[in-house]
């Protein structure tokens, strides 16, 4: 439907604030009526509801049947799935006997190792999967870990801090073939060792003195700054107790020798303690002995009070507050997250900042007040209580977002669940924005209060109608005459008709053949491209019963049978 036809029909797309009067370009479609015969309106535009689908079937973690994926070129009248036995990543743990990498000169490694596999589905873009399992005293150093279908980065991390971890990328686990990962940990001679001391700072006068870290325990780890790959274990370098001098021996992967640079990260073991984090870039060849200075970050400033006001100027309760900034010596510090009380006040422990802190406020989901960031100073005059400058933060107002949902019959979709999910973060935030949930009223209308950004609206009806979604962009809008922020109105959408698809899920066991699989989850996705990136959009899901049968409501253009 063209913009002129939409305007002629009296349809409002969305307004980016009444001050600008700008009307955005129309979306690819609003309702199924905008699409050609047989197609319906999806989040990415018009498409055939029977094509371009993929299905995820999860048999249950208790039996090791993690997600397996199926491509469905054309959706049938019924759709059955058979999942094979558990998919696994198998392999072995060995250790080099010398500095030379030699498969014929290795010993079996049977000490405890933690294996982590992180990745995503190869058929369902954006659907992430993550698994981990510990192995100790393995049979001849072999291991087997159940995972879901996908492509992974797999890291083996020995418990022994003197044995550096090893990582493999691009490991594919599928029913067509098992994934094999054989680890060969570096020998003592082959690893790269750094020794030294992590201290607070050096004082040269009146005589050379090292000031040690006594507030809390500190850890040190080496990483590849280009990829984030762990090059060493995370080791304790300071206990935080008197007498702890911060001595360390850090054992790194042989890869550290051939990288253009590495990075040592010194961070507090307990993230709630008042110690900063500092990164130390190093380039080979590495010094024999290192002295790492965390910096003159000062002493903690306890109970710095502040207040958060809502967009209406009244105290805002239940908001999450966190501060970030640089402190003395060039390190960075993030405060513990705190929550405002009924009077909008909070107290937080900080370190003296270099300049100021970026204070972030996250109001509760659905509130009129929105995410707000502001630079604040800390006044810490001796003999006086510490304060913020300014002492209070007033939140900006979220943008009111309005719309309407109609049933395929043309009647309003009353009491319909609407969820707003942020799809792409804008700006730098220490935390993600929460989802926002509302119900439509008797006229099918919904009202949301959202922060500026890109959102996906998910509409989940009950009964025999499928869920659907739309993408929206919420733009910051100026207040009208200094008053309430003008909102955005989105065009009404009409839910697609639904069809009930049934099928049976079975599992293939080599010894017993196929058998029905109860309590399996079946999820149907539309595989497409959104904003130039591959994406998988959930269309519907169901659970199998005791005989492996499931049913799911999927969108269709067909008229209901009489």
Write up this protein:
- The protein has 4 domains: 51-84 and 497-556, no CATH class; 87-199 and 201-294, Immunoglobulin-like, CATH 2.60.40; 302-394, Immunoglobulin-like, CATH 2.60.40; 399-494, Sandwich (Immunoglobulin-like), CATH 2.60.40.
- Strand 8 and strand 9 (128-135) form a beta hairpin.
- It has 562 residues and is an all-beta fold.
- The strands form 12 sheets. Strands 24, 25, 26, 28, 29 and 30 form a 6-stranded antiparallel sheet that branches. Strands 4-3-42-43 form a 4-stranded antiparallel sheet, with no helix packed on it. Strands 5, 40, 41 and 44 form a 4-stranded mixed sheet that branches.
- Helices cover 1% and strands 48% of the residues.
Question: How do the strands and helices of this protein lay out in sequence?
Answer:
Blueprint: H1 3-8, E1 40-42, E2 45-47, E3 51-58, E4 68-74, E5 81-84, E6 87-96, E7 106-108, E8 113-120, E9 128-135, E10 142-147, E11 150-158, E12 166-173, E13 179-185, E14 192-199, E15 201-203, E16 209-211, E17 218-223, E18 235-238, E19 247-252, E20 262-268, E21 278-282, E22 289-293, E23 301-309, E24 320-326, E25 332-334, E26 338-339, E27 345-350, E28 357-362, E29 372-379, E30 387-389, E31 392-394, E32 399-406, E33 417-424, E34 436-439, E35 445-450, E36 453-460, E37 468-474, E38 488-489, E39 493-494, E40 497-509, E41 513-516, E42 521-530, E43 533-543, E44 549-556
Parallel strand pairs: 5-40, 6-13, 14-22, 23-31, 32-38, 32-39
Antiparallel strand pairs: 1-2, 3-4, 3-42, 6-7, 6-10, 8-9, 8-11, 11-12, 14-19, 15-16, 17-18, 17-20, 20-21, 23-27, 24-25, 24-26, 24-28, 28-29, 29-30, 32-35, 33-34, 33-36, 36-37, 40-41, 40-44, 42-43
């Amino acid at each position: 439907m063209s913009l002129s036809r939409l305007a002629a029909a009296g349809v409002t797309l969305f307004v980016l604030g009444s001050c600008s009067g700008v009307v955005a370009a129309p979306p690819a479609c609003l309702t199924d009526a905008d699409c050609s015969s047989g197609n319906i309106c999806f989040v990415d535009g018009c498409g055939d509801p029977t094509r371009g689908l993929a299905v995820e079937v999860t048999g249950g973690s208790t039996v090791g049947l993690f997600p397996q994926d199926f491509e469905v070129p054309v959706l049938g009248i019924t759709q059955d799935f058979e999942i094979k036995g558990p998919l696994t990543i198998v392999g072995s743990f060995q250790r080099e006997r010398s500095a030379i990498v030699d498969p014929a000169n290795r010993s079996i490694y049977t000490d405890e190792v933690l294996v982590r596999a992180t990745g995503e589905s190869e058929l369902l873009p954006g659907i992430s999967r993550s698994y981990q399992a510990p192995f100790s005293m393995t049979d001849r150093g072999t291991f087997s870990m159940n995972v879901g279908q996908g492509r992974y980065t797999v890291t083996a991390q020995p418990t022994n801090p003197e044995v550096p971890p090893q990582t493999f990328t691009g490991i594919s686990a599928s029913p067509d073939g098992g994934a094999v990962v054989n680890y060969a940990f570096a020998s003592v001679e082959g690893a790269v060792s750094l020794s030294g001391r992590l201290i607070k700072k050096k004082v040269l006068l009146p005589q050379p003195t090292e000031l040690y870290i006594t507030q809390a325990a500190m850890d040190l780890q080496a990483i590849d700054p280009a990829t984030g790959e762990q090059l060493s274990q995370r080791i304790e370098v300071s206990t935080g107790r008197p007498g702890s001098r911060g001595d360390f021996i850090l054992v790194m992967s042989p890869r550290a020798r051939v990288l253009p640079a590495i990075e040592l990260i010194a961070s507090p073991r307990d993230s709630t303690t008042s110690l900063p984090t500092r990164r130390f870039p190093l380039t080979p060849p590495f010094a024999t002995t290192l002295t790492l200075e965390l910096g003159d970050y000062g002493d903690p400033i306890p109970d710095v009070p502040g207040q958060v006001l809502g967009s209406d100027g009244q105290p805002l309760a239940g908001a999450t507050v966190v501060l970030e900034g640089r402190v003395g010596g060039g390190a960075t510090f993030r405060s513990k997250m705190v929550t405002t009380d009924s009077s909008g006040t909070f107290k937080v422990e900080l370190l003296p900042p270099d300049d100021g802190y970026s204070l972030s406020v996250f109001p509760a989901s659905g509130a009129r007040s929105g995410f707000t960031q502001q630079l604040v100073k800390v006044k810490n005059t001796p003999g006086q209580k510490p304060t913020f400058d300014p002492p209070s933060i007033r939140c900006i107002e979220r943008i009111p977002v309005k719309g309407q949902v109609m049933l395929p019959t043309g009647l309003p979709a009353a009491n319909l669940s609407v969820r707003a999910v942020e799809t792409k973060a804008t700006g730098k935030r220490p935390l993600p924005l929460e989802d926002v949930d509302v119900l439509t009223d008797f006229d099918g209308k919904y009202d949301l209060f959202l922060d500026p950004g890109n959102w996906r609206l998910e509409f989940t009806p009950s009964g025999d109608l499928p869920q659907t979604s739309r993408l929206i962009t919420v733009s910051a809008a100026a207040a009208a005459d200094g008053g309430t922020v003008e909102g955005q109105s989105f065009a009404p959408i009409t839910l697609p008709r639904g069809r009930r698809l049934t099928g049976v899920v079975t599992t293939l066991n080599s010894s017993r053949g196929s058998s029905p699989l109860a309590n399996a989850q079946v999820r149907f996705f539309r595989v497409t491209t959104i904003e130039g990136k591959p994406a998988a959009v959930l269309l519907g899901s169901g659970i199998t019963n005791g005989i492996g049968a499931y049913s799911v409501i999927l969108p269709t253009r067909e008229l209901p049978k009489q």
